[in-house]
Specification:
- With about 130 residues, the protein is mostly helical.
- The protein has one domain.
- It is about 80% helix and about 0% strand.
- The protein is elongated, with a radius of gyration of 17 Å.
C-alpha cells in the first residue's frame, strides 16, 4: 500500500466510525433526552406544522438518525453519508429559521461538510476497488 493511502484510509475510517456512532447515539438520545432537551431546538413554525406531538416527532427523528448511522457503519456508507449531509444541512436551516442557535447551525454545517467528505472518500474507495479488480 503506497504511503498516501494510509492517511486517506485513516481519515475514511475515522469519519465512518465517528459519524456512524454519533448518529446512532444522538438518535437513541431522542428517546431518552439525556444529552439535551431536544424540544427546545425546534422552531415554532415547525412545531405548529406537526400533525403529531413533539415527543412523537422526536421519536421519528431519532429513528431516522439511528437508521442513517447504521447505514454509515455498514455497506451503505456512501448513501448514509449523503443522507447525513442533507439531514445536517436541514437541521442547520431549521435552527436558523428558529431565530436562535446560530452557533449550532454553523456547527451542523461544518459537520455536514465532514459527512460530505466521507461520502466522497467512499466513492473514491469504491471506484478504486473497481479499477483494481478488488
Amino acid at each position: 500500500m503506497p504511503t498516501i493511502d494510509r492517511p486517506i484510509e485513516t481519515a475514511w475510517w475515522t469519519l465512518r466510525l465517528g459519524y456512524g456512532a454519533l448518529a446512532v447515539v444522538i438518535g437513541v438520545d431522542k428517546f431518552f433526552h439525556r444529552l439535551a432537551s431536544w424540544d427546545m431546538y425546534l422552531a415554532a413554525w415547525v412545531e405548529a406544522l406537526l400533525p403529531v406531538s413533539t415527543s412523537t416527532f422526536f421519536a421519528a427523528v431519532g429513528a431516522v438518525e439511528i437508521t442513517v448511522g447504521v447505514m454509515v457503519l455498514t455497506r451503505w456508507t456512501r448513501a448514509g453519508a449523503y443522507l447525513l449531509t442533507a439531514w445536517l444541512v436541514g437541521i442547520a436551516v431549521q435552527l436558523v429559521t428558529a431565530g436562535m442557535f446560530y452557533d449550532l447551525a454553523v456547527r451542523d454545517v461544518g459537520l455536514a461538510l465532514g459527512a460530505f467528505a466521507l461520502a466522497q472518500l467512499t466513492e473514491g474507495r469504491s471506484s478504486r476497488a473497481v479499477r483494481s479488480g478488488a
